Amino acid sequence: MKKLLITLIFTIILSLSAFAQDKVQVDNDQSYLVLSTKKISTMEKELDEVAAKGFRVLYGAPTQQYDMSILLKRIENPDSEPYTYKVLATSRLKTMEKELNDLAQQGFQLLPRTIIFKQGFITAELVMLMERAPKSNKTYEYKLVQGRKETKVHKEIDAAAKEAFYPITMIVLGETVVVLEREIRNSFKAN
Length: 191
Description:
Blueprint: H1 2-21, E1 32-37, H2 40-51, E2 55-62, E3 68-74, E4 84-90, H3 93-104, E5 109-110, E6 116-119, E7 124-132, E8 138-147, H4 150-161, E9 166-172, E10 176-185
C-alpha cells in the first residue's frame, strides 16, 4: 500500500511538472499563434516558451476583457537560440522611459506594433513589448516625447533628431506621446 501511494504521488508530481513546463500547446505544423492573458508575468513566460518553439512576435492588441493579445509567426529557419521577450507595463511615462532604457542597454528593442493601453476597473497601464535577437551586439536608447500642444512635440522631436533619435511610433493618451529610438553600437553580447 505504501509503494502504491508513493508511486501515485510521484506520478502526480511528474504530471504537474510536465504541465507547468509546457503550458502553450502548439502543433508542429502550426504557423501562427495568438497568446492572450491578463497577467504580464504570464505573458512573458508564455512568450519565452513559444519563442523556444521558433515563434516571433508580429503584433499586440488590447482585448475587451482587459487582456492583451499577441500574434506570433513561426520562423522558417530559426536560429539555434530563440528570441527573448520582456513585457513592460506602467501608468507613468517617466517610469516607462526608464524601464525601456534599462532593457535597451541589455540589447532589447521595442516592438512598436505591440504597444497597447490596457484599461482595468481601477488602473490603466501602458504596455510595451521588447525583443532581443539572439547573438545581437546592438543596444538602443529611447526617449518619450509628450505634450498637449503640437508645437511643443514638434520642437522636442526636432531636438531629439539632432541627437540621432528617430520616431518609431506615436500614442495618444489624452496627450500625444512619440516614442523615439536610436541605435548604439557596442560589444554587448546577448546570452
